[in-house]
From TrEMBL:
Family membership noted in the UniProt record: Belongs to the bacterial ribosomal protein bL31 family.
InterPro entries, sorted: Ribosomal_bL28/bL31-like_sf (IPR034704), Ribosomal_bL31 (IPR002150), Ribosomal_bL31_B (IPR027493), Ribosomal_bL31_sf (IPR042105)
GO biological process: translation
GO cellular component: ribonucleoprotein complex; ribosome
Protein name: 50S ribosomal protein L31
Keyword Ribonucleoprotein attached: yes
Gene of this entry: rpmE2-2
Keywords noted in UniProt: Ribonucleoprotein, Ribosomal protein
GO MF term set: structural constituent of ribosome
């Protein structure tokens, strides 16, 4: 690889403020603030809006909304599929 082509890849802490959840990882992103993690090292903090701790798919609160009643209209128009 060419030197000085890639950004620095180092340890950071991603913090989900909505769920009050943080986890250490490695990234090329750097945050404006720092925090001391459990291992005693100071790491930059990157604030995120959604993580696996707050996303509806991962928390089991996801819902499918059919506000236009498209499924019912399709079934009424073409009938239910019964399979073979």
């Amino acid at each position: 690889m060419k030197p000085d082509t890639h950004p620095a890849y180092g340890p950071v802490v991603f913090r989900d403020k909505a769920a009050d959840f943080a986890f250490p990882t490695r990234s090329t992103l750097t945050g404006g603030t720092t925090t001391e993690w459990e291992d005693g090292r100071t790491r930059p903090v990157v604030d995120v809006e959604t993580s696996s701790a707050s996303h509806p798919f991962h928390t089991g609160t996801a819902r499918v909304l059919d506000t236009a009643r498209r499924v019912e209209r399709f079934e009424r128009r073409y009938g239910r599929f019964e399979g073979r």
